C-alpha cells in the first residue's frame, strides 16, 4: 500500500492551443470568454475539486461554513483578463479557495 496522498498532487491546467491563442487576443470579450470557459472546465474537474476541498477541510475559508461550497478564484478570471496578471497563475492551487455561496456573493469582483 502506498503512502501517496491526494494532497501531494495538484493537476496542471492545460488549455487547448486554440484556446491559449484566444487568451492573448486584443479583444477583451474574446480573451475573457476563453479564460472563463477554460477555467470553469478546469475547476469542475473532480480531482481539482477534491484537492481544494480537502486542503480547506471542506469549509468556507471566510466563515467556516460547510454548506453550499464552491471553488473560487482569489484573483478573478475577470481581473486576469483585464490586467497583466499572469494567465498561467489563474488556476494554480494558491489562487483557488473554498467559499460558501453566501461569502462568494459578498466578495468584491
Description:
The structure is a single chain. The protein is 41% helix and 9% strand. The chain has one domain. It has helices spanning 17-23, 28-43, 46-55, 77-82, 101-106; strands at residues 69-73, 96-100.
Strand segment count = 2
User: pLDDT below 50 for ≥5 consecutive residues: which ranges?
Assistant: none
Average pLDDT metric? 91
If strands are numbered along the chain, what order do they take across the biggest sheet?
1-2
Number of domains: 1
General form: globular
**Major sheet summary line:** 2 strands, antiparallel
Number of helices: 5
Return the structural class: mainly alpha
- End-to-end separation in angstroms reads 45 Å
Supply Rg: 15 Å
- Strand proportion: 5-15%
SSE arrangement, N to C: HHHEHEH
| Range of helix content | 40-55%
Amino acid at each position: 500500500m502506498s503512502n501517496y496522498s491526494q494532497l501531494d498532487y495538484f493537476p496542471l491546467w492545460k488549455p487547448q492551443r486554440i484556446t491559449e491563442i484566444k487568451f492573448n487576443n486584443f479583444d477583451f470579450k474574446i480573451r475573457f470568454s476563453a479564460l472563463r470557459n477554460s477555467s470553469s472546465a478546469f475547476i469542475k474537474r473532480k480531482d481539482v475539486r477534491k484537492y481544494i476541498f480537502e486542503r480547506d477541510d471542506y469549509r468556507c475559508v471566510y466563515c467556516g461554513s460547510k454548506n453550499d461550497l464552491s471553488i473560487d478564484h482569489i484573483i478573478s478570471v475577470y481581473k486576469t483578463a483585464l490586467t497583466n496578471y499572469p494567465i498561467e497563475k489563474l488556476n494554480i492551487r494558491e489562487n483557488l479557495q473554498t467559499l460558501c455561496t453566501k461569502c462568494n456573493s459578498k466578495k468584491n469582483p
